[in-house]
Amino acid sequence: MTYVFAPAAPASVPVQGGGLFPAHRIYCVGRNYVEHAQEMGFTGREPPFFFMKPADALVPVAEGETGAIDYPSLTANLHHEIELVVAIGTGGRDIPAARAAEHIWGYATGLDMTRRDLQGEMKKQGRPWCIGKAFDQSAPISPLVPKARAGDLSKGAITLAVNGQLRQKGDLSELIWNVNEIIEQLSRAWVLAPGDLIFTGTPAGVGAVARGEVMEGAIAGLPTLRVAVR
Ligand code: MN
């Protein structure tokens, strides 16, 4: 059988040093840093949770370049959330935390862009977050760094500046669920597959960006992610 029209090219993320990582699904962890949970009105003692974005929401940005996203429709409160992204190379289900590292292919710096006003309205009404989280161009991402080259990412600074002014600042050691625990929890709920990307949650300091502003996200040991809003 042939396709009735040409299928879209698969979403992918360039790898530092060459090659393309084919993206499968994007999972995101909500409220995975205590201070961020608190700034969103929660105690930080609740367990984190998951939501998803479509893979074609990715906006890969080359190292040393400034990428761009369009200010999205329907919102007047577009927020930045800087996050460590974990790329899965070997799939599986019910993966224990102690074996999780074997499933990791690499890491990247990512932004979980959020239409905060729409997300807030959906929360209030008990409706799905898709319109607030899973919109077009909502997942800018740096090149992926293979695990062996990335070094230890269980600790290290994670920051985001807007037009050179520091907005978000945290440390990877502050994750409520660390990367291995995220993979354990996630693989109980879904069968992980090669190509899955996991946005691991954002530290405190989320806030709005406007057209013309430039976000610069940095995680120690990974490529800096620079994205303009146009
Ligand atoms: Mn997030």
Structure description:
By secondary structure, the protein is an alpha+beta fold. The protein has one domain: Fumarylacetoacetate hydrolase, domain 2. The protein is 15% helix and 33% strand. The protein has five helices and 18 strands. The strands form five sheets. It has a six-stranded mixed beta sheet with strand order 4-3-15-8-9-12. The protein has a five-stranded mixed beta sheet with strand order 6-18-17-13-14, with no helix packed on it. The mean pLDDT is 97. The site of manganese (II) ion (MN) has 7 residues, from loops.
Please write out the topology:
Blueprint: E1 12-14, E2 20-22, E3 26-30, H1 34-39, E4 49-53, E5 58-60, E6 66-69, E7 78-80, E8 82-88, E9 104-111, E10 114-115, H2 116-125, H3 130-133, E11 139-141, E12 145-146, H4 147-150, E13 157-162, E14 165-171, H5 179-189, E15 197-199, E16 207-208, E17 214-219, E18 225-229
The structure holds manganese (II) ion (MN).
Throw out a few tags for this protein.
alpha+beta, single chain, Fumarylacetoacetate hydrolase, domain 2, 5 helices, binds manganese (II) ion, six-stranded mixed β-sheet, 230 residues
